[in-house]
Write a structure and sequence with these properties.
Layout (H helix, E strand, L loop, with lengths): L22 E4 L6 E6 L22 E7 L4 H18 L3 E7 L2 E3 L4 E4 L3 H16 L3 H13 L7 H10 L4 H9 L4 H16 L7 E4 L2 E7 L2 E3 L7 H19 L1
Parallel strand pairs: 3-4
Antiparallel strand pairs: 1-2, 1-6, 3-7, 5-6, 7-8, 8-9
Amino acid sequence: MDVKTPLLPRTERPIPMRRRHRFRRFHAAAFVFVLGLFWLGVNWQCTDPTHHHNHEATAKVPMEVHIMSKCPDARDCLQKLVLPAMQNVSDKVDFRLSFIGKATEEDDGVQCKHGQTECLGNILELCAAELYPNPKLYLGFTMCMERDYPNIPKKELVQDCALEHGLDFDQLNYCVSQDDGAFAMGMLRDSVTRSADLNVTTSCTVRLDSKVRCIVDDGEFVKCPGGSRPEDLVRDIKKLFDVAKGWSE
């Protein structure tokens, strides 16, 4: 495979999604797709019908969302909870988007539940956050991708979402292929390792102020103390922000 060739596949047949199924490795050696299939012992949950971190004001409330890019629960979580809340309190939130997968030590690769296309989708969304650290930009791009998650990472979808949200497609593509894929793979490994270290295995998991705030699993909002509506999340963020602001003054 010529490493200079753009790495966004034109067509990919979506990987069937099941609660437990086989996994594929994705590694940085020219982003060659490994065809071997593997079973994982961890119960990664996602039912089918960021390397970059904002370190600005210390008073902002940490919020982290852990997803898999080809997961319908990630779409529902972002669309029904995270995005509406962020539209109201983005100035009060130190936001981070992280991904769920498994780093493989034997080849410095990553296993993604829904196959190599999900690994590439995760990388594209991480690259968007790296290049455009304003959550309003990269979250908009991510939500656009998630709405059509079965087609991630088709080139046409990525181009359309980049255009819609003012992202440069060529820069995204360069981020994916930089250093023969090693740069992007490093971001993905760091992201999935972080999720694993935090014991997060369900897409989508929302963590607020270092605590699990809500989980979307099999289309249901569960483990959401204080409510699962955007206004509930906004209320909690404002309370935490006021407390943090008081401490920093």
